[in-house]
Design a protein that fits this description.
The chain has helices spanning 22-39, 51-81, 86-115, 118-128, 132-138, 148-160, 162-174, 191-195, 203-219, 221-242, 248-256, 260-272, 274-288, 311-325, 327-338, 375-395, 412-428, 432-468, 473-488, 506-510, 516-535, 540-549, 555-561, 569-588; strands at residues 178-182, 185-189, 293-294, 342-343, 355-357, 366-368, 492-493. By secondary structure, it is mainly alpha-helical. Among the domains are: 22-160, Butyryl-CoA Dehydrogenase, subunit A, domain 3 (Up-down Bundle), CATH 1.20.140.70; 176-219, Helix Hairpins; 226-306 and 443-593, Orthogonal Bundle (Neurolysin, domain 3). It is globular and about 75 Å long. Bound molecules: zinc ion.
């Protein structure tokens, strides 16, 4: 069907042929010139301006963004491919500087647009066509916007107030070091290095790693706890008292452009399904040969298979699985390989992990992974190519401003692609260890992105309310421990040191209520997969329509146009039904501890 693919580094020629490519300096010069011209149109902006001129200015802004993305994208890709390369480091720093300057130079446009009255804004929006949702989304928070003078004061005071407090939280916690004795030798570790031991095969080491984490954080509870109290009180006084949001979480919901009721329904369904993961933890205990899992053992390594895939086998497997779903999906994925946009090599200095980077609509996305032939690498390839497909389908009809799906939809095609490949392997490969490993992988992922995040959100909801009622850091720790007891039931042994976990979750400090978006995105895909299983071919056009929409509409509108109603509990339950089936498959395997 196609030539065998071999593992390679990517080609970036579609962007620039090198740092010394004359097009680099020419692009920078053009960007600076265009930005200056854009800034010169400032005085033309007014409530009475001709809609045609308004659209021209938005299009010029999109042009600037496109050019900036090309340059910044090239800088990011070169750096990821070789993080130790000084030229790449220098160019990246230069581009960051350039982009910050560009932001400052063009910010006036967004500020003017957000501040414009509804009536003239509506008139201009009606002409905006392809840019409509991007423009409308910028105005979402307008009903909660205060007078210009008030906004100025909030901005000014935030810099050294709430934002400064978050900088302090980072500054304090980033300095922590952790002591761990590994093979008789005491080591001093960063948090990142410590976390590796949560997955260590040695149960004692796993426990020590967590105990050390919470020893350090708990010692600072009087400070870290107060920071959280200040953050929650500030969130409430600004957003509820001044801006009249209905609840602390409603602020985030509006930002994500997802209705409050949809989020409430999603979270309620998560809560109802806590027993599903409790069942999973009991099963995991059996496989590990213990009576009951300790919280320390949640991420104990389960992989047993030594099965590997040659690179070309892996590519073929992914393309075949995509082809079975829909030939055009496979064709898009093949384009990434044919244009040499996937860097799969294992190299020193290359960025770890994997990502897909989509830049502008006219460019095929780039994918980075370090391919080592494990089943996990096959799933990762499918995941990142899923992102690439999403991007390419969205690129068919979107501009650079409406291309990128918002957070709740951002993982749709990636996770879906991963499911297709994993299902294909499960259906075609009888190797029981491989099956087991893949099922554990899916379950661990579902737990970490859905249930764990949903319970973080429950804690945030309760904590914000309790802090308003005067709760102390100690009472918040009690609240957190109760939250964990509800989440796990009696499925695991939960030691009291986990009562301090909330002090160590940067998200709940930095971006309140951000976490539920992970649960939303992941469960959405499982629910869509469930519909695919039930409807077969009839589902495909609706699914592709969601991907094609990119970021051109509110997530809920994109889904409802494809006939998907996320406001019902049944829809979200469908997602858990898929997870339940994975678990049942796992439970059906004979346990060999
Ligand atoms: Zn992803």
């Amino acid at each position: 069907m196609s030539a065998a693919y071999t593992v390679e580094a990517w080609k970036l020629d579609d962007l620039f042929s090198g740092f010394d490519d004359p097009a680099v300096e020419a692009s920078i010069a053009r960007l600076e010139k265009d930005a200056a011209a854009f800034a010169g149109w400032r005085n033309e902006l007014s409530a009475e301006m001709p809609p045609g001129r308004f659209v021209d200015i938005v299009a010029a802004y999109a042009g600037l963004v496109g050019l900036a993305i090309r340059l910044q994208g090239y800088a990011g890709l070169r750096f990821s491919a070789d993080t130790q390369n000084e030229e790449a480091q220098g160019f990246r720093a230069r581009m960051q500087q350039l982009m910050a300057g560009l932001d400052n130079q063009t910010m006036f446009f967004k500020l003017w647009w957000k501040g414009l009255d509804d009536e003239p804004a509506g008139r201009l929006l009606d002409a905006a066509d392809d840019y409509r949702y991007w423009l409308a989304a910028l105005r979402l928070e307008r009903p909660h916007t205060l007078s210009e003078a008030e906004e100025k004061i909030i901005n000014l005071k935030n810099v050294n107030g709430s934002a400064a407090l978050m900088t302090l939280y980072d500054a304090i916690t980033n300095r922590y070091t952790f002591k761990l004795t590994v093979e008789g030798e005491e080591q001093e570790l960063t948090r990142g290095e410590l976390q590796v031991y949560y997955r260590d095969p040695n149960p004692a080491l796993r426990a020590q790693a967590y105990q050390e984490l919470y020893r350090v954080y708990a010692a600072d509870m009087p400070v870290l706890g107060q920071i959280y109290q200040f953050r929650a009180r500030d969130w409430r006084s600004e957003n509820l008292d001044l801006r009249h949001y209905s609840s602390p979480i409603a602020v985030r919901n509006l930002h994500n452009d997802v209705p409050d009721e949809v989020v409430d329904t999603l979270l309620a369904v998560c809560r109802n399904n806590a027993p599903l993961f409790q069942r999973y933890f009991r099963l995991k205990a059996r496989w590990l040969g213990v009576e009951r899992l300790r919280r320390y053992d949640l991420y104990a390594p389960m992989a047993k298979t030594d099965k590997t895939y040659r690179y070309d086998e892996s590519v073929q497997l992914v393309l075949d699985s995509f082809h079975q779903f829909d030939p055009q999906v496979a064709d898009l994925a093949r384009r990434v390989f044919d244009e040499h946009h996937l860097d799969g090599e294992v190299r020193k200095g290359k960025r770890g992990g994997a990502f897909c980077s989509g830049l502008t609509p006219d460019l095929t996305p780039w994918v980075l992974q370090s391919y080592q032939g494990r089943p996990d690498d096959v799933a990762t390839m499918a995941h990142e190519l899923g992102h690439a497909i999403h991007f390419m389908l969205a690129a068919e009809s979107n501009n650079v401003l409406t291309l990128f799906p918002s957070l709740p939809l951002a993982e749709t095609a990636s996770t879906f692609g991963e499911m297709l490949v994993v299902d294909e392997i499960l259906a075609s490969d009888p190797d029981p260890e491989l099956r087991r490993d893949l099922l554990f992988r899916q379950m661990d992922g579902a737990y970490a992105t859905i249930m764990r995040q949903a319970y973080f959100a429950f804690f945030e909801r309760e904590a914000h309310a309790e802090i308003a009622a005067g709760a102390s850091p100690n009472q918040l720790s009690d609240l957190y421990l109760a939250n964990l007891h509800e989440q796990f039931g009696d499925s695991i042994a939960l030691s009291d040191d986990f009562r301090f976990e909330w002090l160590a979750i940067p998200h709940i400090y930095q971006v309140p209520f951000y976490v539920y978006a992970y649960a939303f995105g992941q469960l959405l895909v499982f629910a869509l997969y469930q519909q695919y299983r039930q409807e077969g071919d009839g589902f495909k056009p609706r699914y592709l329509q969601i991907l094609r929409a990119g970021g051109s509409a509110a997530p809920v509108d994109t889904l409802s146009r494809a006939g998907i109603d996320v406001s019902t509990a049944e829809f979200w339950q469908g997602g858990f039904d898929v997870i339940g089936r994975l678990l049942a498959d796992l439970e059906a395997l004979p346990v060999e501890a």
